[in-house]
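Risk mitigation, structural track. In case the binding assays with protoporphyrin IX containing FE fail to produce interpretable data, a predicted complex structure has been prepared as a fallback.
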Amino acid sequence: MSFSDTMASLSNGFVYSAIAVYALALLAYSAEAAGRAARRHVVLVPAATAAVNSPTTPEPEPAPDGWRRLGAIGTSMTVLGFLLNLAGVAARGLAAQRAPWGNMYEFAIVGALAAGGAYLFFLSRRPVRDFGVWIVAIVLLALGLAVTVLYTPVDALVPVLNSYWLVIHVAAAISAGGIFTVGAVATALFLVRTRAETRAKERGGDVDGRYAASLPPSTTLGHVAHAAHMFAFPIWTFAVLAGAIWAENSWGRYWGWDPKETWAFITWVLYAAYLHAASTSGWRGVRASWFALAGYAAFMFNFVGVNLWITGLHSYAGV
Amino acid sequence: MRTAVILLGLLAAAAIPGSVLPQRNVASDPAAVLNFATDNPELYPWLDRLGLFEVYASPWFAAIYLLLLVSMTGCVLPRCARLWQAARSAPAPAPRNLTRMEGYRSFPVRERDPVADEEPGSAGPLKRAAEVLRRRGFRVEVAKDEVRAERGYLREVGNLAFHLSLLVLLVGVAAGRLFGFEGRVALAEGETFTNVSSAYDAFTPSVWTDTESLEPFAFTLDEFDAEYAAEGPKSGEPRFFNAALSYQAGANDETRRLDVRPNHPLDVNGTKAFLTGHGYAPVVTVRDGRGDIAFSGPVIFLPNDGSYASDGVVKVPDAMPQQLGFEGFFLPTAATGPQGPYSAFPDALNPQLFLTAFAGDLGVDDGEAQSVYTLDKSGMKQLRQADGQPFARALSVGETMKLPNGLGSLTFDRVGRFANFQIAYDPGKEISLAAGVMLLLGLTTSLSIRRRRIWVRAIPDASGTAGSSTLEVAGQSMTRWPLPDKDIAHLVETLAANATALHPPEGSAS
Ligand code: HEM
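Fallback model:
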């Protein structure tokens, strides 16, 4: 076997192992989430009655150590899955002798890497473990689709893709995508939690709804969402600019309203609308969140829908 | 701001139809709009009236982004003025009640250091606080009993630069739209292109393009090379293109050589020639009925699939006694399938030229412009064999076909190639690039810098003990982010540390 073949099969091995490990992470995380939600529910009922019957303060909820340990296991598995994914991407790059983001299979495994990495990065500075189950699910979906539907053997690129501006452009776009994924998960959970909080306020009482009750307060979720978007937006802006420079270099025009470019623009404008809404009174919070989710949908559509359904100059990226 | 959100939402929505419906002047497929019109004859005129085939040039699209830019300017100019004032005036005084502000801390300081001793009252710790804040990059103003500090003005500068860059971008885009041009030309190996508008196959000037004085240059396609993946699942996918050119920039320039490849254009003072496609140009020699060479050279055949099965015509207006025309196709790697001959691979492994012949009047002399890729058969008669079947032949390289009735012959000399060049001039490009850089720097600055204020107030001790006082510290974030913890913590630490250092336990004092 040649060096390239060895690396290619190593890469596949790593990606499959990453899938296995991430699947364990998903199990651990979802067991934790389910456990926490269930416990909340059980604790909530006696606490509420206690509050009515006696003026003594209800007992603080016992620390759910067992569940917490499951969560920690989930995180360790996520780290391991991330490292395996990283090894898979690196081996793929060595096999192809180029940056390993030249077709949809590679976009998917690098995108999974970026989402996992962004999650772990945020986890190292903020209490976002509740996102874990969703991020891992998305990562698994991406890797699963990659190996089943999108798989392409290692190969060289068509000549027009041979440009370092392209390498930079795609790397920036995928990194932004990873962080946008964390932002989208945070935003969705923010919406779930906010809804529960609003209901609780109207009714007067604690947040119920098993899952919503187990989530961090909406302010925390909103903060993480905003931080992720603020972090990713300049990177996405850079990706779009780098793409324009590459387009100028290869087609003689920096902007041509090709479908791929158009959806990059739509994504950008929606996230700009989100950032504005987030500093506009009356739009902050729930309404702004919908713009963020729309931005994410546009971003995903650009990676998936445009490649598959709309033909344009970019369509040689290949499935 | 609400206006901005709504208009941005509208802009995003308005951009969608252009990615779904085919667009005029969008490069990928020039025939797409026409095809749509043929397929949807009822829908087409309505959609066309709404400008949905030219979304990005339509008045309603322009209306949205112009409104957005106007509203933005209206937003941002007053902000510029306020920033200018803020930059020239001192940081704001502390609110009366500091305890309500962020990160409030209060702690006693006893004052006995040399600086304080010189200055009466509580100025000592305040001076030190000012020093600490200044070193941390705050702009500091020391008033009688308080320190006012602010930093992060750059955030506003960034925000303004970012928003204004959008106007610069508009200028850059407009410059290209008003003065630039785009054109396309296909050159067979050995052919020369001179940069005048009439030499283009397609030329799209802008409103104010100076068509008479395009950048003077000329280039010859010496040789075109293409390589394809020979095996594996991507067999037939292109791997390498190279167009070897000789060019002259300006009339008196020496001849230079350049390899033009994808992403490596020829650039003559900002007018760039990009390699955008290629195909085959079989070289043929046609002899007429008298045996004279009536035509000899490459003829461009346009590829119509990924394996470069290509269609083309050969026109021979100089042939005597009758003009000759040929129509047919070229297969670089000819193979035979159930549907007839096809091309199995894009490279020229088994090149074959399939032609039928016509004689008569080509219609090229009546002055009307004619496509070089189609034959006007109105004045031509198809040649037939003795049995009445249309005359048609498949030629390999070196083979000759003799036309019936002694009308002449055609020889397939060798396989040549042609290359497509997109030639573009955009005088707004540099402006747009500058706008892009300004946009990115401004955006990053505005999103990463936190503007905030810190106040330190000294309250002389009620007991009246000489030099002893209480310090109050608090701040205010001017963004949606909380005050960085470090700002206040650092202040407290430094002042407290200094205080203890300066005030060793009783008795051991100097
Ligand atoms: C042309 C389209 C526009 C784009 C792409 C755009 C984009 C942005 C972005 C990305 C930010 C940074 C968000 C942040 O600091 O959190 C921002 C901030 C801001 N924009 Fe715009 N903007 C546009 C138009 C406008 C308009 C029309 C207005 C006025 C109505 C406006 C007023 C502001 C203000 C005041 C901020 C600062 C918000 C803050 O300090 O939190 N912008 N804009």
